Amino acid sequence: MKVRISDEATDEEASAIAEALAQHVRDEVEVFVGDADSPAVVHEAPVAAGSGSATAGSADATETADDDLGPTDRERALWDEIEDIELGGPEKYKQRLEEQGKLFVRDRLDLWFGEDGMLFEDGKFANFDAWHPDSPEVEEGNDDRLPGDGLLTGAAEFEGRELHFMANDFTVKAGSMAEKGVEKFLRMQQRALKNGKPVLYLMDSSGGRIDQQTGFFANREGIGKYYYNHSMLSGRVPQICVLYGPCIAGAAYTPVFADFTIMVRGMSAMAIASPRMVQMVTGEDIEMEDLGGPDVHAQYSGSADLVADDEEHARELVADLISYLPDSADEKPPKAESKPPVKSPEGIDSIVPQEPNKGYDMTDVIDRVVDEDSYFELKSEYGKEILTAFARIDGRPVGIVANQPAQRAGAIFPDAAEKAAEFIWTCDAYEIPLLYLCDTPGFMAGSQVEKDAILEKGKKFIYATSSATVPKQTVVVRKAYGAGIYAMGGPAYDPESVIGLPSGEIAIMGPEAAINAVYARKLSEIDDEEERAKKEQELREEYREDIDVHRMASEVVIDDIVPPSTLRTELENRFAFYEDVEKELPDKKHGTVL
To answer: Which of 320, 415, 403 is nearest to 366 (CA)?
Structure first.
């Protein structure tokens, strides 16, 4: 660049002008004074840090270019510290992970979120001064590493969704929790309450560090606050927990407080106390797998919603699960592209037997109603006489509550009632419409189910159906006897529609039980066995005519009887039409039934 200035300018002024312009234009500047043919000052373009010069007679200057600055020793030292933290706990504990077939926690996060999915990590330097070799507080030779205080927290993108995450580092004191880790955990929960994004807990923790309990156990902002925050988050944002190891005592409460719990076969367990503690307290000698392994919680307690085969499968299950859920209770669940059912609706009527006591598999009906590959069952091994599952109809997520005649004739046992109630409660919290497919003889009777709280758990089922404010559609597939029709979204329970298939029946009880209850004495007075059987058949047929779905439609107890081959279309139209229905509960703090 060439610049001509007044012939009255001094050499110092020419030099200052040249220097200033060179820094601004990032180019060589020649300054001519007056009419001179040669420049009085030439200022070279700024170059690498530490070089660059200007000449004005004997005048020289050194400049530094900002865009050529590199990391200082201070930043390089920080990178070294971060690299050290990310190595995790002592190497010997990493080797144990390999023996157990488990991933190191940071490799696990890479599996879940990929290289670019981690948005940020908070609390990486937690407890740094207490363990890092360069800290003046650490004794020489101390190898008791506590990076991140054994817990990683932050935010990530998962399957196109942003969420909070918490992940225990099992190489640090077996993933145990102490003061700084507890604080990180609580901060994540509290932020989730404010910003309304899901929370993912990747649990592999042996519980609280007993030798450090005064710093976190009973404090106002201690580990007990976990469960308070879990309770506040419940129904606000989805909480999903995956277990990768034995979670004992306090660590076992996070999985059961979560909306959805996934256990990994061969790795996971959760229990109120360890086998050693159980042996001390009760004298029972039991292995961890038998005390609180996946089969225990999938089949008997109902605490496990899903069981994964390995770490990759666990991720796949959560990826499917979250596709049905909104980010928070303030949003509607995400829609997907509509797909036709995997099997034709034309086959529905052939699947459902006319005889009320004959078994069949309700999933054969569901396959002909919901979008292909959208059926996602939860708690499949628990309370099998009721199916609870997410699915899509015309791309819209729905929660299915369906009796399963292939299991104990579809009678409702205590475990199934509780399972259904919890599922309905969760669907209602996250604005997922409900589809009831009813084919049940009602709640089971007998001394054992009374001991197992059939009335108490049946009450919760009916309560959940009563208080759900999401759109509800009920289909009377076949029998709807006793209080079963109440729990399964019957006409009195504010469904948007109750429709029947031609195989449907609604009654206080089935024909066999009714004839026995009403006409037993009269039938016993008929001595001739053939005549008695004939009379019994006549009474049974009369009774079935009285409870037939046509009678119910005639009396407008139900809204319509539909040809089974049109059931898919009927549900598409009804869910679409009532998508934005508004319902209100009585003005009260909350109910008293959980």
So the answer is: 403
Q: Is 332 within a domain?
A: no
Dig out the tokens for 556 from the structure.
């407008």
**Do 451 and 569 reside in the same domain of the chain?**
yes
- In sign, the C-alpha dihedral spanning 348, 499, 377, 414 is negative
Query: Do 296 and 383 share a domain, yes or no?
Result: no
Contacts of 256 (CB under 8 A, 6+ apart): 270, 303
Q: Which residues of the chain have pLDDT under 70?
A: 23-26, 46-68, 131, 133-143, 208, 210-220, 222-223, 519
pLDDT at position 20, please? Answer: 74
Q: By residue range, what is the domain housing residue 20?
A: 2-68
Which of 238, 233, 131, 224 lies closest to 182, judged by CA?
224
Q: Which of 3, 34, 33, 37 is CA-nearest to residue 20?
A: 3
User: Could you tell me which residues come within 8 angstroms of residue 322 by beta carbon, excluding any fewer than 6 positions away?
Assistant: 158, 159, 161, 198, 238, 240
Do 475 and 363 share a structural domain?
yes
474 has which bridge partners?
Answer: 436, 498
Torsional class of 35: left (φ above 0), alpha (ψ -120 to 50), beta (otherwise): alpha
Residues 116, 97 share a domain: yes
In angstroms, what CA-CA distances link 162 with 117, 118, 191, 192, 328? 9, 10, 13, 11, 12
Q: How many domains, in total, are found in the chain? A: 4
Give the amino acid at 514: A
Q: Are residues 171 and 254 in the same domain?
A: yes
Residue 45 resides in a domain: yes
| Residues 522 and 391 grouped into a single domain | no
Beta bridge partners of 388: 378, 401
* Residue-wise pLDDT tens digits, 396-451: 999 999 999 999 999 999 999 999 999 999 999 999 999 999 999 999 999 999 99
Question: If phi over 0 gives left and psi between -120 and 50 gives alpha, with beta otherwise, what is residue 207?
Answer: left
CA distance 420 to 412: 10
Find tokens 């390089």 and name the residue: 76
Instruction: Identify whether residues 313 and 247 lie together within a single domain.
Output: yes
In a domain, 553, yes or no: yes
Q: Which two tokens stand for residue 30?
A: 């020649």
DSSP letters spanning 201-254: EEE----B-GGGGGGTSSSTTSTHHHHHHHHHHTTTS-EEEEE-SEEEGGGGHH
What is the Cα gyration radius of the chain? 35
Is 277 domain-assigned? Answer: yes
Specify the pLDDT at position 54.
43
**CATH code: domain of residue 415:** 3.90.226.10
Q: Could you report the per-residue pLDDT of 184-208, keeping only the tens digit for each?
A: 999 999 999 999 999 999 999 877 6
283 CB contacts (<8 Å, ≥6 apart)? none
